[in-house]
Amino acid sequence: MREILIIGAGRSASSLIQYLLDQSESEQLQLVIADLSLELAQKKTNNYPNATAIALDIFNEKERRAAIEKAAIVISMLPAHLHIEIAKDCLLFKKNLVTASYISDAMQALDAEVKKNNLIFMNEIGLDPGIDHMSAMKVINEIREKGGKMLLFESFCGGLVAPESDTNLWNYKFTWAPRNVVLAGQGGVAKFIQEGTYKYIPYTSLFRRTEFLEVEGYGKFEAYSNRDSLKYRSIYGLEDILTLYRGTIRRVGFSKAWNMFVQLGMTDDSYVMEDSENMSYRQFMNSFLPYHPTDSVEIKTRLLLKIDQDDIMWDKLLELDLFNDNKIVGLKNATPAHILEKILSDSWTLEPDDKDMIVMYHKFGYELNGKKVQMDSQMVCIGQDQTYTAMAKTVGLPVAMATLLILNGKIKTYGVQLPVLKEVYLPVLKELEVYGIHFIEKPMPYLGYKYS
Question: Coiled-coil region(s) at which residues (predicted)?
Answer without folding.
Answer: none
